[in-house]
């Protein structure tokens, strides 16, 4: 702690003393200080300091979402139909093909369903109804009236409205939580609801594997040596170099297989590539041949997109 170096601040007829003190914790934050006599008011000098204090603003909650209100389905389908896939079809690299496919779709998605970012200062409060908001506004008006006129009648009215709001919010919260948890069939739904309300921390993002993809592939390739004796015959037959397509072969992926596989997907989660399953389903008429080409190129050349291996 440090003392601001004022001169004598208390003056009597026969003496002057440093009676008034100002103590700071960091001299570098002291921007200005001074004192002024106010003999007409007191024997003490008026002292002041100008201190540099950095206030921490409350961090809002930022949410990035896609604005579906801007979606024009006719324009979206027209853009999908007009994609030039020449570069993708001509490439001999699986990674380049996947990158080109993702880039083309994301460009159209961002154009037709743009990303928006909103900042929320407060946590979500789905239990707040319009009736509760109306009572809150009445409470705030009563508080302003009481602070202005400072009479007991206005204070009692404000206190009654304040207590009423607290009771309404408490009951609404209880009802909302009970309804949410009673409808949750799985534990993950409960945890998702708690994260949405900000009652627990969100999952950490950006986690990385402790091992590279190549190390994992090598490990699982070597683990074949640990097969049981009964499976050793099958392994020996496969490793003998004799290929019998009746026993094992890759089937050519057909358009109906692609359509059927995507139709079976029931997750609405967006992957790291940012492609939305809902928009993908809408445009399957135009995208099925390209997805079919990607699958068959991967199987025929024995390669797998590195981008997908990292997911």
Main pleated sheet = 2 strands, antiparallel
Helix content: 40-55%
How far do the termini sit from each other? 54 Å
Mean residue pLDDT: 80
Organism: Lasius platythorax
Protein name: Reverse transcriptase
Structure description:
The protein contains 12 helices and 8 strands. Helix 1 runs antiparallel to helix 3 (94-112), helix 3 (94-112) runs antiparallel to helix 11 and helix 4 runs antiparallel to helix 5. The chain folds into 3 domains: 2-51, no CATH class; 70-123 and 250-311, no CATH class; 130-196, no CATH class. It has a two-stranded antiparallel ribbon. A two-stranded antiparallel sheet has the order 2-3. With 311 residues, it is mainly alpha-helical. A hairpin with a 4-residue loop joins strand 2 (10-11) and strand 3. It starts with a strand and ends with a helix. The longest helix has 32 residues, at 152-183. It has helices at 73-81, 86-90, 94-112, 130-149, 152-183, 187-196, 213-222, 229-239, 255-264, 277-282, 284-301, 306-309, and strands spanning 2-3, 10-11, 16-17, 23-24, 30-37, 45-51, 61-66, 115-120.
């Amino acid at each position: 702690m440090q003392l601001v170096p004022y001169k004598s601040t208390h003056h009597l007829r026969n003496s002057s003393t440093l009676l008034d003190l100002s103590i700071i914790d960091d001299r570098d934050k002291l921007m200005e200080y001074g004192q002024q006599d106010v003999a007409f008011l007191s024997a003490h000098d008026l002292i002041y300091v100008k201190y540099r204090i950095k206030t921490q603003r409350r961090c809002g909650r930022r949410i990035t979402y896609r604005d579906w209100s801007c979606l024009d389905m006719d324009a979206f389908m027209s853009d999908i139909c007009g994609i030039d896939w020449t570069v993708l079809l001509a490439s001999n690299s699986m990674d380049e093909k996947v990158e080109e496919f993702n880039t083309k779709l994301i460009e159209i998605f961002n154009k037709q369903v743009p990303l928006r970012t909103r900042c929320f200062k407060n946590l979500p409060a789905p239990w707040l109804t319009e009736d509760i908001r109306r009572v809150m506004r009445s409470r705030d008006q009563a508080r302003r009236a009481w602070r202005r006129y400072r009479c007991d009648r206005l204070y009692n009215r404000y206190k009654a409205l304040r207590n009423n709001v607290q009771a309404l919010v408490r009951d609404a919260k209880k009802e909302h939580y009970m309804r949410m948890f009673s409808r949750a069939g799985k534990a993950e739904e409960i945890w998702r609801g708690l994260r949405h309300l900000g009652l627990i921390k969100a999952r950490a993002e950006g986690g990385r594997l402790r091992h590279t993809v190549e190390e994992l592939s090598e490990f699982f390739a070597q683990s074949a040596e640990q097969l049981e004796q009964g499976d050793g015959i099958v392994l020996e037959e496969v490793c003998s170099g004799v290929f019998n397509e009746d026993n094992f072969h890759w089937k050519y992926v057909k358009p109906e297989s692609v359509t059927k596989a995507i139709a079976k997907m029931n997750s609405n989660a967006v992957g790291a590539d940012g492609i939305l399953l809902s928009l993908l389903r809408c445009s399957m008429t135009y995208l099925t041949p390209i997805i079919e080409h990607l699958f068959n190129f991967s199987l025929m050349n024995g390669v797998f997109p590195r981008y997908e291996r990292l997911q």
